[in-house]
Design brief:
- It contains 4 helices and 2 strands; from the N terminus they run βαααβα.
- By secondary structure, the protein is mainly α.
- The chain has one domain.
- Helix 2 runs parallel beside helix 4.
- The longest helix is centred in the middle third of the chain and has 14 residues.
- It is globular, with a radius of gyration of 12 Å.
- The model has no long low-confidence stretch (mean pLDDT 91).
């Protein structure tokens, strides 16, 4: 039996919320993307934390859903 670590939309939002990003679980991914981009524009010191989070979620042993991966790519 193979167990895969999967990052879905909810996991992604929860991790961003834990960073202090101004997002909610109810937002769709496009709204999350806009909110995080505005947040890091206003608070550029948060950028490394967002990038580190995205890098950690994209490691070789974690599967990220494509729609989540697309949003993460916009933070690069």
């Amino acid at each position: 039996m193979m167990i895969v670590d999967l990052v879905d939309e909810i996991d992604f939002k929860e991790r961003l919320i834990a960073l202090g990003a101004p997002v909610t679980l109810e937002q769709d991914l496009m709204d999350v993307q806009e909110a995080v981009l505005a947040w890091i524009k206003e608070y550029p010191e948060q950028t490394p934390f967002v990038k580190d989070l995205c890098a950690a979620m994209q490691s070789d042993d974690i599967t990220v859903l494509p729609e989540v991966s697309n949003v993460m790519a916009s933070f690069a």
